[in-house]
Amino acid sequence: MLKAILAASIVAAVAMQAAGAAPAPIPAASPTPAPPDTAAGIAPFAAHFVAQWKDINVGTSDLELTREPGRDQYVYTWNTRARGIFRIFYSHDVMQTSVFGLHGTHIRPEKYRAQDGNAKVSADFDWETGRVQGLSEGKPLDLALRADTQDVMSIQVEVMQDLKNGDLPPIFWIFETNAIKDFEYTRAGTARIRTELGELDTVVVTSRRHGGDRVLRMWFAPSLGYVPVQA
Q1: Looking at the whole model, is its pTM more than 0.85?
Q2: Which domain holds residue 24?
């Protein structure tokens, strides 16, 4: 399951799939952004998501972005767990953490950690040497960094920043599991959707692996600092 989770670049990965069926949209519940951090341009927040399949609650996901006191360093955590009968197939919670800083107005990852049972990924980004090193499921990891590389967690906050600044690049290089891959991102318009917080105006963004046919669609709410509210 770890590889399946890491292959997704944003919140939609929490929609557990059963028998190959496509997941339903994920309604957000109780996003709680903190007061805007005007100096850094990033507002810490916490959000709880529910994953549904054919109107059945099959899992939950919790996101939290915090800022280290007195430092321009942020910690972004993502905890995903299956529910009900799906717990039989996905018995372990999936934990992911990205530690990152700011490089200008952009996100620069420093550390990425993920764990699904005994499967673990530990990656450290060294921007001075231009390498990302660590362990991926017990195997040594040593890759050359591309400019502005993100991990599968930090990319979420980078997209929020880019939407806020009105400048979403068409291509992102993203570290996942044991490789750095290119993904295409497109701003696909706007939509007004219903959530646990009521109706929200959102910006719709799609992403997919370059040359791939699996499209991920995400809804970001400007009124919440572009926090993702559905995928």
Answers
A1: no
A2: 2-184
